[in-house]
Amino acid sequence: MQLTRIGPEHWETFREVRLRSLSDSPAAFGSRYEDWVDAAEERWRARLTDVPLTLVATDGEAVVGVASGSPDGDDWVELISMWVAPEARGTGVARLLIDAVAAWAEEQGRGTCLMVRRDNDRARAAYARAGFVDRGVPDDWPDDELVEHRMELRR
Question: What are the residue boundaries of the N-acetyltransferase domain, all occurrences included (predicted)?
Answer without folding.
Answer: 12-154
